[in-house]
């Protein structure tokens, strides 16, 4: 049973910062790529950031220079540090792992991030 549990969301003002965490169980965490996605109602999920098992990172153009993805293999946790937040960052944020079993298409509950004055 793979479980993805996101946490850390909340309401912050534009220009503020927020740190998200996702704890994973049921897989050998250290050998998987980890990702953060976000989704706004009425839109498809958007890939925000990826970190490989070796620690190489990649970011969507919309968040480059503002967001940082990191992982703690000892804690089976992936983090997303979000700085200089903008209203358009408002979304539900989800974590993901790759590769997946073809039979595994489940997601966690996500965590709501709202940027508003």
Description:
With 117 residues, the protein is mostly beta strands. The chain contains no helices and ten strands. The strands form two sheets. It has a six-stranded mixed sheet with strand order 2-10-9-4-5-6, with no helix packed on it. β5 and β6 (57-59) form a beta hairpin. The N and C termini lie far apart (40 Å). The relative contact order is 0.33. The model has no long low-confidence stretch (mean pLDDT 96).
List key phrases describing it.
six-stranded mixed β-sheet; four-stranded antiparallel β-sheet; 117 residues; 10 strands; 49% strand; mainly beta
The gist of it:
With 117 residues, the protein is mostly beta strands. It has strands at 3-7, 10-12, 18-25, 33-39, 46-51, 57-59, 67-72, 77-82, 91-98, 111-115. It contains no helices and 10 strands.
List the helices and strands and how they pair.
Layout: E1 3-7, E2 10-12, E3 18-25, E4 33-39, E5 46-51, E6 57-59, E7 67-72, E8 77-82, E9 91-98, E10 111-115
Parallel strand pairs: 2-10
Antiparallel strand pairs: 1-3, 3-8, 4-5, 4-9, 5-6, 7-8, 9-10
The secondary structure category is: mainly beta
Instruction: Bin the helical content.
Output: under 10%
- The first-to-last residue Cα distance is 40 Å
Order of helices and strands: EEEEEEEEEE
How many helices? The count is 0
List the uncertain runs: none
Largest sheet: 6 strands, mixed
Using only CA atoms, what is the Rg? 14 Å
| Mean pLDDT reading | 96
Give the spatial strand order of the biggest sheet: 2-10-9-4-5-6
Q: Report strand %.
A: over 45%
Overall geometric form:
globular
The total count of strands amounts to 10
């Amino acid at each position: 049973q793979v479980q993805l549990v996101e946490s850390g969301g909340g309401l912050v003002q534009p220009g503020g910062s927020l740190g998200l965490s996702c704890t994973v169980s049921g897989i050998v965490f250290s050998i998987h790529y980890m990702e953060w996605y976000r989704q706004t109602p009425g839109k498809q999920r958007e890939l925000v950031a990826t970190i490989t098992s070796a620690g190489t990172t990649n970011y969507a153009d919309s968040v480059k220079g503002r967001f940082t993805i990191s992982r703690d293999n000892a804690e089976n946790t992936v983090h997303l540090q979000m700085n200089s937040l903008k209203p358009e960052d408002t979304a539900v944020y989800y974590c993901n792992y790759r590769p997946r079993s073809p039979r595994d298409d489940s997601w966690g509950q996500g965590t709501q991030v709202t940027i508003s004055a």
